């Protein structure tokens, strides 16, 4: 089909330009699309080769013994003429379109083959073309359609038996039936194998999508964990630094030495906060667990309580039961809980408050209890403190992550308390 385009080179009587049509030769993409619209190149080559071989067996005298041995030439035949050659070509050329309509082509090619048998013309390779169409139908269609194709081949061969009496002995009929059944079985096996491979590919794709989803979930969980760690570190150290800075400001004029000590404590606290945050954020750069810095745990509670004492909070630590190693997750969660609770006591109750940390090791449970007496009689937060944040949410998440129980609220007799119970397995 010719392609045209509109050109503005023409003009009418009034001087206005008029569109004209000019021919544009087809491009390489057009030729490729036209080729793709027809039969596949391999099928076209197969059909031409099959037709050429079939016509050669019919027309070349030297190949007549081979044709008789293959059973494709009847005992009494007419000399090859145009009718026989056309009918033989009609039996093999449709193989070029075998992928689109194999059943229809199998039915259509039966008619010229029966015509060749009835006219005593050699059939060439029409039987091979029928076997190719049978394989295509059984390999590319469902079970019902493939069985229909098998039945059509049986009917096709039955027509040969009726039209050419005495053409083959019973052994020949058995051999032909075996070949037909094998072609059908090979086609079905090919279809099942393709379906199995497609299922494997789909399963692999589903597993890949599931793996990507798990990876995204793991990344989100890791980001949440790092966010909780950073919040606990920043909230604790910044709160202590704020209290120390407020104390240094108050005594700067009257007691320079005390102010100097407070500034030294602020500097040390800032360095510790930077070091701990560097260790936490370093996990994002190196995914190797061996390169991660050791996380704090219950063994570091004495140092934490002493740090809070230096900040002005009268904190005391009491351990009940026999201390033993804890699972890393529970160890870190319990430490962060105490750190957040003491930070809140320092921030809200003020340096004049008293706080108690009680850790009790039971056979199947770890209990962490942090309480303070309220400190400030007016109930207002200490200087620099804030009344809200994500600390309590982080504590709840940590305790719930390990199946624990948590109580946060006012303490009987005044003050505030945080009590958590972590379940422990036997032997931990």
UniProtKB/TrEMBL annotation:
Positions of the Histidine kinase domain: 336-426
Basic and acidic residues composition-biased segments: 370-379
Annotated stretches, region: Disordered: 370-391
SMART domains xref list: HATPase_c
Family matches, as InterPro entries: HATPase_C_sf, HATPase_dom, His_kinase_dom, Sensor_HK_TwoCompSys, Sig_transdc_His_kin_sub3_dim/P
Gene Ontology CC: membrane
EC number: 2.7.13.3
Biased composition (Gly residues): 382-391
Any Pfam family matching the protein: HisKA_3
GO molecular function, one term: phosphorelay sensor kinase activity
Transmembrane segments: 41-60, 114-135, 142-162, 168-187
Domain of life of the organism encoding this protein: Bacteria
Coiled-coil intervals, chain numbering: none
Alphabetic keyword roster: ATP-binding, Kinase, Membrane, Nucleotide-binding, Phosphoprotein, Transferase, Transmembrane, Transmembrane helix, Two-component regulatory system
Catalysed transformations (reactions): ATP + protein L-histidine = ADP + protein N-phospho-L-histidine
Designated name of the protein: histidine kinase
